[in-house]
Specification:
The structure holds two protein chains of two kinds. Chain A is an all-alpha fold. Chain A is built from six helices and no strands. Chain A is globular. Chain A starts with a helix and ends in a 19-residue tail after the last helix. Chain B folds into two domains: about 110 residues, no CATH class; about 140 residues, Heat Shock Protein 90. Chain B is about 65% helix and about 15% strand. Chain B is built from eight helices and five strands, in the order ααααβαββααββα. In chain B, a hairpin with a 2-residue loop joins strand 2 and strand 3. Chain B is elongated and about 130 Å long. The chains are: A mainly alpha, B alpha+beta.
Chain lengths: ~190, ~280
């Protein structure tokens, strides 16, 4: 799979394994570490995909710098909040950064004169999946620590719904034919004469 | 970072969470819709540009076909009206009755026929020269331009001069012919429309660019006029210039001198484009 799509494929496998693993009762004792690790892995994979997708050197540099900051903050947070049930800060930071990077990608796409139909590319649908998922769960992650278990249970449906939408959009991206930008045709030189 | 992690459970979490999520989703969907509409706008704009380019190409092509037809008609007329009667006359002198005539008349007829055949040869040579000037073919652009300008000056109606500053190596024959035809067309336009008293041509190079500049003191056109004429159905000669220069990826600029006294026409060619022209594809 070229163009970094293998990253998304690896993410899908990991996501499936992680969701299945959470059904094992003994794992729940380590949920903070597992979720924190998953947040870092998820961020790494998504940012890697975005890194492969960027053409601009500037965006690549911004992504690397922000990623380094993210890792530092995430590690410090894991070490300092061992008693918490969910690493809200890392997850919120991840969501914010991926939203920002996705906007960079879309900005780059609409400014590229060689791209005529942005939505005919697989990458566009992957990025839309990122944007929809992370924008819908950003506030949920920010407020995750303050939620009661009852609220957590009911609000976590937002995460599940948009996780499903995200996976559906990934499926759309994978199901799409290889991106071929339609070239402006010069064959039909005098259309009115045909 | 505290903004990304709310720890105060007293606040109305549900409300903020609900409106925050809805707001973020609305923003995202708005962004996606904007991108799709922007794309459509870009596509429409590109299609319009493409259509304009096609129209322009069509105009140039039509102009070039019309000119080609006119040239063919001119050659046909020259051959039919001049060479045809001359050869017919020569045939009359050399008819079967010639053998029955006396020696002096025979010699006179042969001499007349020879004269007419010589005239015909000269006429055909002139037609051939108008298709490909021999000076251009044998001695290059500088000599061909000088030759052309001498003929114009010789007519006494206009003072024409040229100066080539940097023409040590000849260009490709095809390129030289195109440039010469463009100069001919420009000079022809100046002679026909400008009422100028002089034309001066200079040639120069700068880096990889080859420049030819024509100055004249008559009525001329500016780049705006040229662009307008190029888009209209008139100005066949100018369209012909444009289509010829397109082959060389050359540019042409029409402007008025700083002093507002002279009109300038500058032809700019890239030397590497000239190299590309000689490389067979």
């Amino acid at each position: 799979m070229e163009g970094g799509y293998w990253v998304i494929f690896v993410y899908c496998i990991l996501s499936f394994v992680a969701d299945s693993a959470f059904r094992i009762p003994s794992i729940k004792h380590y949920s903070f570490y597992v979720l924190s690790a998953l947040t870092i892995i998820e961020y790494s994979l998504f940012s890697l995909f975005l890194y492969f997708s960027y053409k601009s050197r500037l965006f690549k540099t911004i992504l690397i710098v922000c990623s380094l900051l993210f890792y530092v903050i995430a590690v410090i947070n894991i070490l300092s909040k061992r008693s918490a049930s969910f690493d809200s800060l890392s997850a919120s930071l991840e969501a914010s950064l991926i939203i920002l990077f996705s906007i960079f990608f879309l900005y780059e796409q609409i400014n590229d004169p060689t791209i005529i139909y942005v939505y005919s590319s697989k990458k566009f649908w992957v990025i839309i999946a990122f944007l929809l998922y992370f924008s819908s769960i950003l506030f949920l992650f920010i407020y995750a620590v303050t939620l009661t278990s009852q609220q957590h249970k009911s609000y976590w449906r937002i995460n599940n719904i948009f996780d499903t939408i995200k996976n559906l959009l990934f499926t759309v991206a994978f199901a799409m034919k290889k991106n071929k930008q339609p070239e402006p045709s010069l064959e039909n030189f005098y259309p009115e004469e045909n | 970072m505290i903004l990304l992690e709310v720890t105060n459970p007293g606040s109305s979490v549900s409300l903020v969470l609900f409106f925050g999520t809805i707001g973020m989703l609305a923003l995202t969907i708005g962004l996606i819709v904007f991108i799709i509409f922007h794309q459509r706008k870009v596509i429409r704009y590109q299609l319009r540009l493409q259509r304009m380019e096609q129209d322009q190409q069509k105009l140039l092509l039509n102009a070039s076909i019309r000119l080609q037809e006119e040239e063919r008609q001119r050659i046909a007329a020259d051959l039919h009206d001049d060479a045809g009667p001359l050869l017919a006359t020569a045939r009359l002198y050399l008819n079967e009755n010639l053998v029955n005539l006396d020696k002096t008349t025979q010699l006179q007829s042969i001499y007349n026929a020879k004269q007419i055949i010589d005239d015909t040869i000269q006429l055909i040579r002139n037609i051939s020269h108008s298709l490909m000037p021999p000076t251009l073919k044998n001695f290059g652009l500088e000599s061909a331009v000088n030759d052309l300008f001498q003929k114009i000056s010789g007519s006494g109606s206009m003072n024409a001069s040229s100066r080539f500053h940097d023409y040590r190596e000849r260009l490709q024959a095809e390129t030289e012919l195109i440039i010469f035809r463009v100069i001919q067309e420009l000079v022809n336009n100046i002679l026909k429309h400008s009422n100028a008293s002089f034309i001066h041509l200079t040639q120069n190079t700068s880096g990889s660019k080859f420049f030819i500049r024509l100055h004249h003191d008559g009525r001329g056109i500016t780049q705006n006029d040229f662009n307008k004429l190029n888009k209209s159905n008139v100005g066949l000669g100018l369209k012909n210039i444009q289509s010829r220069l397109k082959v060389l990826h050359g540019k042409i600029f029409f402007e008025k001198d700083m002093s507002q006294t002279y009109y300038k026409v500058t032809i700019e060619l890239a030397k590497d484009e000239e190299d590309k022209l000689q490389t067979p594809v």
